[in-house]
Amino acid sequence: MPLENIIQPEIIQISEALRLRKYDGNYEAALKGYRDPYVYQNSEGIFDEAKKPDLSYVEGMFKYLDRVGEAYFIEVLKDGEYISVGDVTVKAENPPIAIWYAEYRGAGIGTAVMKTVIQRLKELGYDRITGSTVYKWNAPSLHMHQKLGFRIVSEDEKEYTLELELK
C-alpha cells in the first residue's frame, strides 16, 4: 500500500474458514474468475461476451491494485486446505471486491471481507471510504454496501457512487 512504514499483513484471518492472503504476484490464479461473465460485468461493467479479459489484462489489473492498495486473495477453507475464491484490495477510494465463483456468492463472504477492509482502513487511520462504485444491475453488491452503512452520494445512468464514514 502506498503508505510509508506500513507493512501489509501476509494473512488476515477473518474466521476459521475465511481469510485474506496477501497477493503474491500470481495473477494467473484470477484469470478463470474474471473470465466469468458475471464477475467481469460486475467488476468492469462490460457485457460483451467476446471481450473476456486475457492474462495480460488481469496482470495489469493486479499490478495496479497492488501498487495503490493492499491486494489480497480471498480464501476459504475447503477439505482442509485454503483455496482462492476471489480478491479484494484495501484502499480508501473504491475498494474493489470480486467473488469469482458462483457457489461462494450470497454466502456472506463479501460482507465479512468488506467488514475486514473497513476495519483495516480504520487501523491505518482513514476516516472515510469514497468513490465506491456499484453498477445499477448489481443489486447484491448495492445491498451489501448499504447494509454496511455506505450511502449513495451520486448516480448516473449506469452506476451508483457510495461513501462510508469510518468512525
Polypeptide structure, described:
- The chain is built from 5 helices and 8 strands.
- It has helices at 28-34, 37-44, 55-68, 109-123, 139-147, and strands at residues 11-15, 18-22, 70-78, 81-90, 97-99, 128-135, 151-155, 159-165.
- The protein has a 5-stranded antiparallel β-sheet with strand order 1-2-3-4-5, with helices on both faces. Strands 6-8-7 form a 3-stranded antiparallel β-sheet, with helices on one face.
- A hairpin with a 3-residue loop joins strand 7 and strand 8 (159-165).
- The mean pLDDT is 94.
Task: Write a concise synopsis of the structure shown.
The chain has five helices and eight strands, in the order ββαααβββαβαββ.
Main features:
single chain, 167 residues, alpha+beta
Oligomer kind: single chain
End-to-end distance: 21 Å
Helix fraction, binned, reads: 25-40%
Q: Approximately what portion of the residues adopt beta-strand conformation?
A: 25-35%
The main sheet comes to: 5 strands, antiparallel
Unreliable spans are none
Order of helices and strands: EEHHHEEEHEHEE
Shape: globular
Tell me the strand order in the biggest sheet: 1-2-3-4-5
Mean pLDDT: 94
Sheet/helix structural class: alpha+beta
Question: C-alpha Rg, in Å?
Answer: 15 Å
Strand elements, count: 8
- How many helical elements? 5
Compile the SSE list and pairings.
Elements: E1 11-15, E2 18-22, H1 28-34, H2 37-44, H3 55-68, E3 70-78, E4 81-90, E5 97-99, H4 109-123, E6 128-135, H5 139-147, E7 151-155, E8 159-165
